[in-house]
Design goal:
Layout (H helix, E strand, L loop, with lengths): L12 H17 L26 E5 L4 E4 L2 E4 L3 H8 L9 E5 L5 H13 L5 E3 L4
Parallel strand pairs: 1-4, 4-5
Antiparallel strand pairs: 1-2, 2-3
């Protein structure tokens, strides 16, 4: 029969399991949550216009043809032609280099080295996302 003097023991294992799962979820989601504070920023001066920055686009095709802003050059002759092209250009002009994925590394490094030797220091290699 049933003994009324016996104390029932409480099984807390399921409770601990649930709390550990909730703790793990909290630990994963807490760093992702961003808090934003609404602030009023000062107004800038509208008298100064932003200048459009001109850049030089260099495209290297799989046929080893280098296009610099719609001018075509052979890869072998690129270094000399780029020095002549960049003679009247500002050395602070940003240069974006795009290259075909199937090209060998040396071809891209040749173009990059030629651009750096011409005196440009704002050079970026552009990739797809």
């Amino acid at each position: 029969m049933f003994d009324y003097n016996q104390k029932p023991d409480l099984n807390i294992t399921p409770l601990v399991d649930i709390m550990l799962v909730l703790l793990a979820i909290l630990m994963v989601t807490a760093p992702v949550i961003e808090f934003e504070e609404p602030i009023n920023l000062p107004k800038g001066s509208a008298s100064q216009q932003i200048q459009a920055v001109k850049k030089i686009d260099i495209l290297i095709t799989k046929d080893r043809i280098v296009r610099v802003n719609k001018k075509k050059y052979e890869l072998n002759n690129f270094a000399d032609n780029f020095v002549l092209y960049a003679k009247e250009k500002d050395r602070k002009t940003p240069i974006h280099i795009r290259a075909e994925k199937t090209l060998i590394y040396d071809d891209i490094m040749h173009v990059l080295k030629s651009v750096k030797e011409a005196g440009f220091y704002k050079v970026a290699l552009i990739t797809d996302g």
